[in-house]
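Data deposition worksheet. Section B asks for the primary sequence of the deposited chain exactly as it was used as input, without tags or linkers unless they were present during the calculation. Section C holds the resulting structure in C-alpha cell form. Section D is free text for depositor observations; keep each observation to a single sentence. Incomplete worksheets are returned to the depositor.
Section A, Depositor: J.P.
Section B:
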Amino acid sequence: MKIRFALLALIGGLLFTGLAQAEKIRIATEGAYPPFNMKNAKGELVGFDVDIARALCHEMKADCEIVAQDWDGIIPGLLAKKYDAIIASMSITPERMKKVDFTMPYYSNYLRFIAPKGSKLKISESGLKGKTLGAQRSTISSQYLEDHYRKSANIKVYDTQEAAFLDLKSGRLDAVLVDAYPGYDWLKKPENSDFDFVGDKIDIDDKIGIAIRKGDDKLKEQFNQALKKILKNGTYQQINAKYFPFSIY
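Section C:
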C-alpha cells in the first residue's frame, strides 16, 4: 500500500512539475473585429485570430491567456509588457516595425470599398470628390484614404470597424474602405443586403503577422515554428474553413 501511495505521489509530482513548467504567455486581441476577433453572447473572445492563437499555444505547449485590448492602445500595451504578443489581424508595416517585431505572416489581406447598392460610385479621385469616406482609425484602410483621397474627399475615422459600418448604414458615409475579409463577413449578413463591394480590390501586398516586442527572438521563433506545424498538419485549414469558403493564407 505504501509503495502504491508513493508511486501515485511521484506521478502526481511529475504532472504538477510539467504543468508548472508550461510557459505562460499573454496574448492581446481587439475583440471588436469580426470574424477575426469579437466577443460572443457570453462575453468570451472568439474568432479566427482567437482560434489561431489557441492552436499555436497548443503546439507550443504553452499556458496562454487571451485578453481584449482597444485597438488604439494595443501596441502601447505590448511595449508596456501588459501582454507578450498581439494576434489581432495586424498588418506588418515599416512604421510598426520601428516599434515592434513580427512573426511570419499568418494570412494575407487586400482592401475593398463598400457602398449602398445602386450608388454608382466610381472609385477614383474625381469619382469620390466631395464624398464622405470612412475607415477604422490607425489601420491600413485609414492610411490609404489619407494617402489617396485626402484632397478630394471628406475622411472620417472610427475607433472600431463596427462603428464605421453603423455610420454607413445610417447614411452618414458614402462608402467605407475595409479589409476585404471583414467586409465579406459583414456583407453576407441578411441585414446588410442593401450594400455591396464597389470598384476593384486594392492589392497593397498586405501581410498579417503576430506582433511581439523587439528582442523577444525566442518567442518569435516559437510562434513561427508552431505556425509552420499547423499549416502542415491541417489545423490552419480547418480554422480557415470555419470562417471562409476560400483560403486567406
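Section D:
The first helix runs from residue 2 to 21.
Residues 109-204 form a domain with the D-Maltodextrin-Binding Protein; domain 2 fold (CATH 3.40.190.10).
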